[in-house]
Amino acid sequence: MSGYLIEQLDTLPGQLCPCGTTRRGFFVPENEKASVHVVEIKEDAATHYHKLTTEIYIVLEGEGELELDGTLHPVRPMTSVMIQPGCRHRALEN
Fold first, then answer.
1. pTM for the whole thing?
2. Closest CA to 83 of 37, 42, 20
């Protein structure tokens, strides 16, 4: 693998995830370090957690809330949140 990867996120196929539909960039076997997910949140997003993965959410558009370990936090464009392994979370649209 070279020292960089390039992805065109809007051309990646969507996959179902607990929060809605995700497009996963840099999610390839030769890269175990990091990936980026562009997620379209669905109304009935499921609360879930990750055993090993730290996630960083960056809100690009819209307003809503993130439920983090049972507490609701308002989010809007340019809000960023780091979610550590074991933290139960889900996104909610307003």
1. 0.82
2. 37
